[in-house]
Amino acid sequence: MIRVRDDGDVRMITLDRPDSRNALRPADLADLRDAVETAETPVTYLRGAGTAFCAGADLDAVAATDDPSEFARRGQRTASAIADADTVVVCGIDGAARGGGVEMALAADVRVATPDATFGEPGVSFGLFGAWGGTVRLPRVMREGDALDFALSGRVLDAEEALRAGLVSRVVDDPRAVAEEIASGKPDALRTIKRRIRDRHRDGAQQRAEAAAFADLVDAHREAIAASRGE
Q1: Sign of CA dihedral 167, 173, 38, 36
Q2: What is the number of other CB atoms lying within 10 angstroms of the CB of residue 159?
Q3: Which end of the chain, C or N, has fewer beta carbons within 10 A?
Q4: What is the pLDDT of residues 164-189, one digit of tens each?
């Protein structure tokens, strides 16, 4: 079950199956994708209910599916919706993130952990791997060697290890506060920064686009920029 609530400039999305550690079924993936794609707030905050962030794919659903590749594609589409959304997606990880839960976090723009967060890709122990875009995004977020070690070993990282590896950017007691901090920025600047950093074009093309976007933002906010000088 996916719960959605807009709170000012932040859309709150909660993975709400605490009895299953928020494991994701096909319907949950569709609902999560819809919740992200329909967000009109500058920032979206993704969290899990209960004592875990997300245990990943619901393995009962995986075992029962007649088309595992479609199950994987459904997860990929949801992760891509998170990565490509106009809204900035901040993922707050409290407790366990495993498998597909790690992959949904990898798709987010900002990953923030509590001291109780842990991360693992246990699929290798029973013959699976992260097929929701994890093999693409993991080595972008972590160094390739660390990514291989993490995925191949199945070992669990605590919050501080995840911070050192670059899997999260902060370890804080209240990740939602980071979402609210980011939401204080100008919405068009947030969208532009996300698009430019997420852009996978060649460096030259990206730099030209970056310069043009910077000029647009300067024109849009000249008064605020002038007022901020000397602060």
Answers
A1: positive
A2: 22
A3: C
A4: 999 999 999 999 999 999 999 999 99
